[in-house]
């Protein structure tokens, strides 16, 4: 019988290893202050050959209008409602919402001291969901929209936030948080290519946002400064992970990034939500979004998939929570080495902690060298 080498004797001893640490070749953990978690970085693994699953490249020349698309202007949706012949960004209530308002309150029947009360906790959730059609043009995505067109999207985000907050503060609705997001591309489970995002308004603050708010509040209490404000200062000093910036916003591959080409878009000044935006901020956000998403498309010459979400102040919260909030956007793209190779969070990442092979600095360097103007061929 053939025996495998003993791994403890077939590798260099601890004493034989070099004393000089190399961030591009040695494993290490990076702390994420927003989530209070660590990410394991294994840059040496990026050199391994890939024989795993590959995504199918789908380059489809889409028409400006698709009569079968339930998001195109004038078309009938699955529920029978008819879209108006909109000419700019269009927002409407989701026909199949994840949460709804017209349901009874949940009443916990189990005693808090019982096993069920301790382990099988339930909380009723109410809210309203919206679809945000970015453009009437079925063939567009953010990188190929004009800055005025993207500004219309930002205006729609702002208007929705303001109107739902008015409802909440007047007592007409129990809303506490508005989560705006976009899933772009088939790899992210997006079934309709028409340019659109979503907004889910809940009567609770979602877990990810709540964790961030608590960690930002703790940082503010301990340091008397804002976590993301300090992080912007640090990134502007180091300049190593900046992908794009303008007067109002900075986009970086965060030091603690999990996804290979993950980015974090942060307001340079203390903007708690879109409610604090001036017209200049709206235009600057549109400009940054266009350049960033164009760089994404140019990275692997494909319509780059991602999940994007806005984190900002809750609709209803204390002044302390509101002041601890800082407008930022997360971009989580799944592609790893090419348009066909996708990162999976499995194994150790599900059972231990998140892990990545490419360092944030290496990913930023790749994005920095890309043009923010050229668009790949979609035919």
Automatic annotation (TrEMBL):
The organism's place on the tree of life at top rank: Eukaryota
Organism: Scheffersomyces stipitis (strain ATCC 58785 / CBS 6054 / NBRC 10063 / NRRL Y-11545)
GO-annotated cellular components: cytoplasm
InterPro entries hit by this protein: GalP_UDPtransf1, GalP_UDPtransf1_His-AS, GalP_Utransf_C, GalP_Utransf_N, HIT-like_sf
Textual note on the cofactor: Binds 1 zinc ion per subunit. Binds 1 Fe cation per subunit.
UniProt keyword annotations, A-Z: Carbohydrate metabolism, Galactose metabolism, Iron, Metal-binding, Nucleotidyltransferase, Transferase, Zinc
Domain Galactose-1-phosphate uridyl transferase N-terminal: 20-206
GO BP annotations listed: galactose catabolic process via UDP-galactose, Leloir pathway; UDP-galactose biosynthetic process
Residues annotated to bind Fe cation: 212, 311, 328, 330
Listed EC numbers: 2.7.7.12
Molecular function GO terms recorded: UDP-glucose:hexose-1-phosphate uridylyltransferase activity; zinc ion binding
Gene this protein is translated from: GAL7
Pathway entry: Carbohydrate metabolism; galactose metabolism
Active site: 196
Pfam families: GalP_UDP_tr_C, GalP_UDP_transf
Keyword Iron attached: yes
Similarity remark: Belongs to the galactose-1-phosphate uridylyltransferase type 1 family.
Recorded coiled-coil stretches: none
Identification of the protein by name: Galactose-1-phosphate uridylyltransferase
Matching PANTHER family: GALACTOSE-1-PHOSPHATE URIDYLYLTRANSFERASE
């Amino acid at each position: 019988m053939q025996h495998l080498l003993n791994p403890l004797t077939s590798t260099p001893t601890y004493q034989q290893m070099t004393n000089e640490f190399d961030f591009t070749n040695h494993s290490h953990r990076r702390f994420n202050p927003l989530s209070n978690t660590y990410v394991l970085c294994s840059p040496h693994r990026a050199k391994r050959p890939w024989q795993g699953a590959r995504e199918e490249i789908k380059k489809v020349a889409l028409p400006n209008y698709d009569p079968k698309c339930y998001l195109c202007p004038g078309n009938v949706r699955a529920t029978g409602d008819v879209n108006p012949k909109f000419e700019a960004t269009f927002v409407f209530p989701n026909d199949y919402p994840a949460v709804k308002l017209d349901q009874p309150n949940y009443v916990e029947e189990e005693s808090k001291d019982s096993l069920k009360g301790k382990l099988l906790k339930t909380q009723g959730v109410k809210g309203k969901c919206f679809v945000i059609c970015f453009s009437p043009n079925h063939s567009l995505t953010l990188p190929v929209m004009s800055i005025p067109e993207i500004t219309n999207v930002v205006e729609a985000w702002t208007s929705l936030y303001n109107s739902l907050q008015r409802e909440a503060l007047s007592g007409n609705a129990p809303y506490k948080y508005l989560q705006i997001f976009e899933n772009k591309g088939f790899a992210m489970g997006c079934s309709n290519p028409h340019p659109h995002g979503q907004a889910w308004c809940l009567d609770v603050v979602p877990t990810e946002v709540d964790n961030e708010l608590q960690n930002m509040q703790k940082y503010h209490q301990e340091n008397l400064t804002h976590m993301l404000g300090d992080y912007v200062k640090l990134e502007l000093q180091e300049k190593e992970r900046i992908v794009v910036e303008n007067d109002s916003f900075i986009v970086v591959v965060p030091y603690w990034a999990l996804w290979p080409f993950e980015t974090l878009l942060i307001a340079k000044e203390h903007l708690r939500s879109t409610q604090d935006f001036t017209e200049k901020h709206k235009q600057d956000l549109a400009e940054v979004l266009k350049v960033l998403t164009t760089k994404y498309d140019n990275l692997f010459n494909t319509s780059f998939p991602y999940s994007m979400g806005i984190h900002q102040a809750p609709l209803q919260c204390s002044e302390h929570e509101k002041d601890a909030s800082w407008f930022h956007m997360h971009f989580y793209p799944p592609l790893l080495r090419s348009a066909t190779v996708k990162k999976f969070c499995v194994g150790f990442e599900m059972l231990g902690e998140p892990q990545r092979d490419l360092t944030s600095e290496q990913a930023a360097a790749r994005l920095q060298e890309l043009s923010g103007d050229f668009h790949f061929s979609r035919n």
